[in-house]
User: Which sequence fits this backbone?
């Protein structure tokens, strides 16, 4: 049997102010990834300053700084782009276009299907889910 204890797990950062949702996602993804939770954009930035996540799940609507604001702040940091799934209750072509312009790989409408989210996150982690060019809208799943 192969010893996988020394294999470094990919890091998934979940950013959402809804603690019940983040708890559910942590339980859902914990066997696949090293899952970290941030309940605000400020907490996410502090985490990212010290650790580069392999991918992020980001809620659009949060207090203080929303998901778009966080993505804009991250673009000014020296970190490489982080593959990001944006979740929102407001899935429109305008939201999708703006999400693409700031670097989101996919947009998922709420309520989010865990199986769809799992498929996208897995694809981002292994490189099979290709990010759309910034001039095109990312994948939108409702």
Assistant:
């Amino acid at each position: 049997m192969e010893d996988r204890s020394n294999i470094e797990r990919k890091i998934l950062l979940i950013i959402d102010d809804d603690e019940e949702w983040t708890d559910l996602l942590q339980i859902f993804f914990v066997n696949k990834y090293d899952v970290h939770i941030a309940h605000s954009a400020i907490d996410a930035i502090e985490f990212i300053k010290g650790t580069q996540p392999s991918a992020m799940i980001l809620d659009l609507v949060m207090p203080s700084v929303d998901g778009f604001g966080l993505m804009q702040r991250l673009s000014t940091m020296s970190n490489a782009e982080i593959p990001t799934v944006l979740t929102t209750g407001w899935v429109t072509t305008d939201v999708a276009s703006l999400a693409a312009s700031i670097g989101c790989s996919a947009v998922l409408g709420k309520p989010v299907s865990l199986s769809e989210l799992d498929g996208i996150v897995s694809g981002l982690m292994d490189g099979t889910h290709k990010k759309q060019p910034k001039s095109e809208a990312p994948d939108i799943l409702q």
In short: The CA atoms of residues 1 and 44 lie 37 Å apart. The chain has one domain: 11-141. The domain at 11-141 is CATH 3.40.50.2300 (Rossmann fold). The chain has five helices and six strands.
